[in-house]
Design goal:
By secondary structure, the protein is α+β, with helices and mostly antiparallel strands. Helix content is about 45%, strand content about 15%. The chain contains 17 helices and 14 strands. The longest helix has 21 residues, at about 185-205.
């Protein structure tokens, strides 16, 4: 049981908003209580897992550790979510629904998008290069994945700002600087309404886009319900761009704070894919999910009772000394790099290839253009401990040829 009040910062949005992830505290928990019965005034208790091997084990064993009903730590035990998308589903529903969508996210399908993604990245970098300062989070990092996912879904350009805000209202409800709702449930309700409208539009007038595929999909020979369609669309319009944007901006900050790694990447563009993997590990935008034990079991000798909730903490696992050498260091050519940013097992993120291609495209366009870059002001973090990242990254820079 957690008796150390210091541990509470792990799930304190105010702390995350002020300092970013509390990696030192998480490392202390991992070293002292790697499988911790965690009690908190604001949440129902969970087993908190902070080691890579334990998080990976739970992720791979989805028949024993269920994604429903709780899914995230800030929901109570037995929570009945309005969402019935892939993150909330267990087999066989999860398997069948994922199969109906995954054609858009195969390696072949993503390769077909590379030219367009590179084109968008070039426009954003050209715009950035026209000045010597920018606010990188909102001017660059957010715009590439936002535009890509909206184009995939067939959402018109004039609605991109709405999609961006809907994601912020869900993931950053505790941060009044960027959220327009009072809590994440209100954000989900607004986003579900938007997605339900999109669903009915594509059912009546289907087009050649991802939204139409989801809206008209069948599982077991039956059409999906509006709630199911809206849930799948919500995941696409929120996690489909927000987490990638956080990884991009966090990766940029890591390069600035580690100038030797910045110089190495500029001199060796062939290291870009490795560098992207390290950015993902180092930032880990989605920090955790919750699973529920289907029956009595054990994790590394610790008895877990049927019905117990387990928080698998990816951010902790991605800094585990047993898995990563010098895990607190940012090393762009780290290899191997078995990070768990996208999860593990059947629930591995369906959009992982898209996220990586977007990041690779942007940094391949950006790095050759930057002669130097520095912080123009102190970075600011989102007040959120679940889906996290920077909300402001003011940069000053000089571009090649300027």
């Amino acid at each position: 049981m957690n008796t150390n009040p210091l541990y509470d910062v792990v799930f304190d949005p105010e702390y995350w908003g002020k300092y970013g992830a509390p990696h030192e505290v998480i490392a202390k928990i991992r070293n002292e209580h790697p499988i911790l019965w965690y009690e908190h005034d604001d949440f129902d208790p969970v087993w908190l897992l902070t080691r890579h091997k334990d998080v990976e084990y739970v992720g791979k064993n989805s028949k024993l550790f269920l994604s429903s009903p709780r899914t995230v730590i800030h929901n109570p035990q037995g929570f009945k979510s309005p969402l019935v998308g892939l993150p909330q589903m267990d087999a066989p529903d999860h398997t069948e629904h994922r199969r109906a969508i995954q054609g858009w996210f195969t390696a072949k399908a993503i390769r077909g998008l590379e030219e367009r993604i590179t084109e968008i990245a070039k426009v954003l970098v050209d715009r950035m290069a026209a000045s010597d300062e920018c606010e990188f989070c909102n001017d660059v990092a957010a715009l590439l994945p936002l535009k890509v996912i909206c184009e995939l879904l067939g959402i018109p350009e004039e609605q991109e700002g709405t999609v961006w805000q809907l994601a912020r209202d869900i993931f950053a409800a505790a941060d009044p600087d960027i959220s327009k709702t009072t809590n994440s449930n209100a954000g989900v309700e607004n986003a579900m309404a938007f997605c339900a409208d999109l669903a009915t539009s594509r059912q009546s007038q289907p087009t050649d886009d991802l939204a139409s595929t989801i809206a008209n999909a069948e599982v077991g020979g039956k059409p999906l319900t509006i709630q199911q369609i809206a849930s799948h669309l919500l995941i696409m319009i929120s996690a489909g761009h927000d987490t990638t944007a956080s990884a991009i901006s966090g990766g940029m900050l890591a390069l600035i704070r580690n100038p030797d790694q910045f110089d190495k990447l500029k001199a060796n563009p062939d290291l870009t894919e490795l560098a992207i993997n390290e950015m993902l590990r180092y930032v880990t935008p989605t920090t955790s999910f919750v699973r529920t034990a289907k029956e009595d079991t054990e994790i590394d000798g610790v008895k877990i009772a049927k019905g117990d909730d387990i928080c698998i903490h990816f951010s902790a696992a991605n800094r585990d000394e047993e898995e990563f050498e010098n895990p607190q260091s940012f090393i762009i050519d780290r290899s191997p790099n078995r990070h768990l940013v996208f999860g593990k097992g059947p629930h591995v993120c369906i959009g992982l290839l898209l996220a990586k291609i977007e990041m690779i495209a942007l940094f391949k366009e950006l790095m050759p253009r930057l002669k130097r870059v520095e912080l123009a002001a102190k970075p600011k973090y989102i007040k959120s401990f679940w889906v996290t990242g920077l909300k402001s990254l003011p940069l000053r820079y000089e571009v090649v040829g300027a």
